[in-house]
Amino acid sequence: MRFGKISLAAVAAAALVSAPVMAESLSPSVKAVAASKVKRAGAATKEESKLGGGSGVIVAVLAAVAVIGGIVIAAGNDDDAPTSP
Question: DSSP states of the chain as a string?
Fold first, then answer.
């Protein structure tokens, strides 16, 4: 039973490792892509985006609060009484 689990895990790991390699071999070659002469063009804009910028600070503060809260909850369990009578 143990050998079966180990061999199944090895087959699953080999499948996960080989999947990107198989997908890469099916994609077009670099030479074909370079020979196509297709260039990407961006759209012209009149003004800058108003979405970029200060949201990174908000996300960092919320992440810090979540980490500190998790530490307080994990360390704050001082109930040493047994659950069963």
Answer: -HHHHHHHHHHHHHHHHHHHHHHHHHSPPHHHHHHT-----PPP-SS--SSSSTHHHHHHHHHHHHHHHHHHHHHT----S-S--
**Mean pLDDT for the chain?**
77
* Token pair of 67 as six digits: 């980490």
**H helices, E strands: number in the chain:** 3, 0
Q: How many CB atoms lie within 10 A of CB 66?
A: 10
Which residue stretches of the chain have pLDDT < 50? Answer: none
